[in-house]
Amino acid sequence: MTSGRRGPPPELARVRRVSVVDSLVEEMTRKILGGEWPAGTALPSLRHFAASAGVSMLTVREAVRTLQARGWVETRQGVGTFVLEPEPSRFVPWQLGASDVAEYRELVEAREAIESAIIALAARRRTAAQLAVLAGLVDRMGAARTDRDRFLEADAEFHVALAEAAHNRILLRSMLAIRVPLRRLMADRLLKELGEHGDLTRSWEDHRAIAEGVRAGDPGPGCAALGRIVSRGRSYVDELGG
Predict the structure, then answer these.
(1) Is position 57 within any domain?
(2) Whole-angstrom Cα distance, residue 79 to residue 81?
(3) pLDDT at 131 over 70
(4) In the 8-state DSSP scheme, what is residue 74?
(5) Which residue range(s) make up the domain with 64?
């Protein structure tokens, strides 16, 4: 008799599970639409917000980035983050339902196209400070190889930091736009990988290869590693589709 859960992969409905970040984004959006945070309101500091919400600063930072991508807030360097005049017609959350396997396949395809371009530009344009951020996030992933949630949090930060290192605002916004449904997909895929292999070493090594290639100014290793990540994601979606 073997231990552990065997059988078919989780249903796609699990991929749609609302994450801590999603919940925080929804709560912040309600405050804006409900008038609690009118246009011009300065958001609390990340540290204060994290403490009051009982979440990590990284979670708050990710939620703020999502709101930025949707046009709800803007961050002014050295001043703070402020609520913009809301336009309800602009707010259309991207929800993928149980019958949207084909769209998840397109999501994985789009992710490869967007991030390949990001890696190529980051290898040319990254700064020393951005390399340090990427290296630190790779270390965090390495330390969290048996903890899906901690690994996923560092993983999400890594891909945004990578996009920032490309110094292309359109690509950064594109990455921010797909990260919520992508995070939902990755949450269950990583859980499956953890169950099958006992840790997330494969994913960690691929992220390390991306960071090292960017540091060396050579996008080749990073794009090859991205290809492996995408291949696993595509296989997982195919399994969900039956």
Answers:
(1) yes
(2) 7
(3) yes
(4) E
(5) 15-90
181-199 b/e (C-beta count within 10 Å ≥ 16 → b): bbbbbbbbbbbbbbeeeee
pLDDT digits (tens, 9 = 90+) for 165-184: 999 988 988 887 787 778 87
Which of 90, 125, 145 is the endpoint of a domain?
A: 90
Kindly report the number of other CB atoms within 10 A of residue 94's CB atom: 11
The pLDDT of 182-188, averaged and rounded, is 83
3-state secondary structure of 115: helix
> Could you tell me if 206 and 228 are in contact, meaning their C-beta atoms sit under 8 angstroms apart?
yes
Nearest to 55 by CA among 17, 92, 28, 84: 28
19-29 pLDDT, tens digit per residue, is 678 778 877 87
Is 210 a domain residue?
yes
125 and 85 in a common domain? no
Are 87 and 106 within 8 A, CB to CB? no
Residues 151 and 233 in one domain: yes
Distance CA 1, CA 135 (A): 42
Whether residues 65 and 118 share a domain: the answer is no
Q: Token digits for 80?
A: 């703070």
Q: Is residue 135 situated within a structural domain?
A: yes
In total, how many domains does the chain have?
Answer: 2
Asked whether 17 and 184 are in contact (CB, 8 A), the reply is yes
Cα gap 137→208, rounded to integer Å: 9
pLDDT tens, position by position, 43-75: 888 888 888 888 888 888 888 988 887 788 888
Residue 5 belongs to a domain? no
What letter does residue 37 receive in the DSSP assignment? Answer: S
